[in-house]
Amino acid sequence: MNCEKKDLILYAVTDRHWLNGETLYSQVEKVLKGGATFIQLREKNLDEEHFMEEAKEIQELCRKYHVPFIINDNVELTAAIDADGVHVGQRDMEAGDVRAKLGPDKIIGVSAQTVQQAVEAEKRGADYLGVGAVFPTGTKEDAVEVGKEVLKEICEAVSIPVVAIGGVGAHNVEELAGSGISGIAVISALFAQPDIEQATKDLRSRTEQMLAK
């Protein structure tokens, strides 16, 4: 499955932190209805069996909406359920090793904070890059902030699409205009909102306006 720039406009990363009695499935369906273009399933605390069960259900949902579905970090699970791809961090695995395990058709995303990391990831077979944190973020305590200058330099240094992640939301997405990104990856800007579907619609339209500038 190819990863196209239009798939990355509004990239939603799941987090069960804000379920409040809802299921993750129903929250993901709301972001898909609202216009999310890409879903990454991120689980830090589920055991393997429940993670697989959940991944299969959400994968089916994404197929229904024709939106790419990828898994955070877990290359084995990606292969086992034939997900569209995987997103790995710098420490998780070289993009080249992931490519060798998953074959040529899977989407591989890699996190990058520097131009050097970005260029290296592209060389080793990454399909897109997640760059951040571009703004201060509460979701990842260990997030390193990447300034907008560096974001722009990374976009200019690689030919694969770049998504900005970290603290991005409706209140500041416009600040990323002109950086060269293909879209934004968000967690709390969607999943922590009282009306998830409406928040997604709003952020999708603001992101499209920013990208058109």
Description:
This protein has 213 residues and is of the alpha/beta class. It has a single domain, classed as Aldolase class I (TIM Barrel, Alpha-Beta Barrel). It is 39% helix and 16% strand. The protein contains 8 helices and 8 strands. It has helices spanning 24-34, 48-64, 75-81, 95-102, 115-123, 148-157, 188-191, 196-212, and strands at residues 10-13, 38-41, 69-72, 85-88, 107-112, 128-132, 162-165, 183-186. It has an 8-stranded parallel barrel, surrounded by 6 helices. Strand 6 (128-132), helix 6 (148-157) and strand 7 (162-165) form a beta-alpha-beta unit. Helix 1 crosses helix 8 and helix 5 (115-123) runs parallel beside helix 6 (148-157). The model has no long low-confidence stretch (mean pLDDT 94).
What's the architecture in CATH terms? Answer: Alpha-Beta Barrel
How would you state the average pLDDT, rounded? 94
Domain module count = 1
Tell me the CATH superfamily.
Answer: Aldolase class I
